[in-house]
Design a protein that fits this description.
Length: 330
């Protein structure tokens, strides 16, 4: 199959690209490469894929390129591109979230509508669509009431997919990701920030009392769910994708302290608007329909990510610029 991945140089997209290449598919990856530090991280993410003969890479702003040409003969499209993160979605930056998460999704759906080869669009959604008050366990039938502008944009993307499916038959499946972690996690995400600070002896800002819990999903489990969704014969369905276990922020910090072998310098700060206190995924539907069964326990996944952080930052005072990797070119 020929497969297009938007956001291919990112955390999840790069892992997905490698898995699809290993399965014998031809993969076209497209991503926007921004400022220098972002480029260095994404260059490292793509090292393995770039060396593969069946990987074709384009560095471009998806809002500015011909999406019809991009997916013209694609059998499947994974739409992972966008802006993530709750805290940055307030205020003036909401316009950027609208462009990246809503307008881009609509433009891609227009191209999918015109495609004669497309068999599946897999849309990357988020547990943020549920908000913070839907009960201890979130199922696909739970109310979707986002409490952040980011969550609102991801829900809008889901709804757009449904509109294009119901009106034009665009064959989509949406996956609601629950707090994904592992090697290559974005620098703004919790585990990456906490582990980097622990390694370099920097203060770790923690918002709220630290008792808030998350359903943590290891990236390899998430990739398996994406691959299963690609082959799912039904369309117009949404699935939760969660991990093996949940943990509180305080429990995560204690685990990082053990990995680092030294006390952490924790800085307690007020809770932030838009952060749900509890997330926990009911994955029964994904298990029944996709055969999804997360297998990587939190301790094992965190140890793998710690190894990545140590390599990335050089073990002492380094930066992302110390990472080697192939140069990314359009």
């Amino acid at each position: 199959m020929k497969i297009v991945i938007t956001g291919a140089a990112g955390f999840i997209g790069s892992h997905l690209a490698e898995a699809l290449l290993q399965s014998g598919h031809d993969v076209v990856g497209v991503d926007h490469i921004g400022h220098r530090s972002d480029r260095l991280i994404k260059e490292d993410n793509l090292r393995e894929a770039l060396a593969h003969p069946r990987f074709r890479w384009t560095a471009a702003d998806l809002l500015a390129i011909d999406l019809d040409a991009l997916i013209a003969d694609a059998d499947a499209v994974f739409h992972l591109a966008g802006i993530a993160g709750v805290r940055g979605s307030w205020g003036a930056s909401f316009a950027d979230y609208l462009d990246a998460n809503v307008l881009l999704t609509q433009k891609l759906l227009e191209a999918c509508k015109r495609s004669s080869s497309l068999k599946k669009l897999v849309y990357a959604s988020s547990s943020s669509v549920y908000g913070g008050g839907v009960g201890a366990v979130m199922s696909e039938s739970s109310p979707t009431r986002p409490i952040s502008p980011y969550g609102l944009t991801k829900l809008a993307g889901e709804q757009l997919c449904h509109v294009y499916y119901s009106q034009f038959g665009v064959p989509y499946t949406a996956l609601r990701y629950f707090t994904v972690y592992g090697p290559r996690q974005r620098p703004d995400m919790g585990f990456h920030r906490f582990m980097k600070a622990a390694l370099l002896g920097e203060p770790i800002p923690v918002y709220g009392d630290g008792n808030q819990t998350r359903d943590f999903t290891y990236v390899a489990d998430l990739v398996a769910a994406n691959v299963a969704a690609m082959g799912y014969p039904k369309h117009g369905t949404v699935f939760n994708v969660g991990g093996v276990e949940t943990a509180s922020v305080n429990e995560v910090l204690a685990a990082i302290e053990r990995l680092a072998g030294k006390p952490l310098a924790i800085e307690r700060l007020p809770a932030q608007p838009g952060d749900p206190y509890v997330t926990r995924a009911d994955v029964a539907l994904a298990q029944a329909e996709l055969g999804y069964k997360p297998s990587v326990p939190l301790a094992e996944g965190m140890a793998r990510q710690w190894e990545y952080i140590v390599r990335l930052y050089g073990g002492g005072g380094g930066s992302a610029g110390s990472v080697g990797g192939s140069e990314v070119k359009p």
